[in-house]
Amino acid sequence: MAIKVKVCGMKYPDNITAVASLGIDYMGFIFYDQSKRYVGQSSSSYIKDLDSLSKVGVFVNASLSEILDKITEFQLNAIQLHGNESAEFCLELKEKSTVSIVKAFGVDKNFDWIQLDPYAKIVDYFLFDTKSSSYGGTGVQFDWSLLDQYKLTTPYFLSGGLDPENIKTALERNDPRLYALDLNSKFEVEPGLKDIELLSHSINTIKK
Predict the structure, then answer these.
(1) Is 8 exposed, middle or buried (0-12, 13-18, 19+ CB in 10 A)?
(2) For the segment 118-169, what is each residue's pLDDT rounded down to a tens digit?
(3) Each residue's pLDDT tens digit, 9-67
(4) Is 8 a known active-site residue?
(5) Active-site residue 129, yes or no?
(6) Which residues have CB under 8 Å from 10's CB, separation 6+?
(7) Which of 25, 90, 129, 182 is catalytic?
(8) By the 8 A CB rule, do 105 and 128 touch?
(9) pTM of the full predicted structure?
């Protein structure tokens, strides 16, 4: 199965349109107001009308009601939970919506893989990012050999410091559970503004 591509941290309408034209599979919009890539109070029209890809709302410890409101307002197809959300919270979201659920975890050498077990039959995907107090967006790669300790079958997005140079290394892991690569800060002119030429080249590398 071909690896999917997610571009995350979008916020500018023209840039969103340009990135969408690259044939990506997922586009992430961050609804965490402490992020430099916070989508803000922008009009939802230019996001909800995107129909060539899956729109992912990224939340950090948000309330269920806030998430459900944003799903409706922005016509989101998937929700990425990037905070300390419990398996019970994920289940409640699953029961009250029809979106795909991606549960993110920050990984370092001390990561306890057992904590994933309660989520495995609830979420659609995991996302593995570099552990950070800022909940992602660091541009730092974690040690991918730690993924050898992942024993579950749930497919996952790989995030954290992906750049044009290490994408091929990620693909060479040849893990059938690796569902998508999550491209963000290493492909930016500034936070939230993506470099179209750089992205295009890397997407071609992933998709060929």
Answers:
(1) buried
(2) 999 999 999 999 997 766 666 789 999 999 999 999 999 999 999 999 999 9
(3) 999 999 999 999 999 999 999 999 999 999 987 668 889 889 899 999 999 999 999 99
(4) yes
(5) yes
(6) 16, 19, 27, 28, 29, 37, 39, 192, 194
(7) 129
(8) yes
(9) 0.95
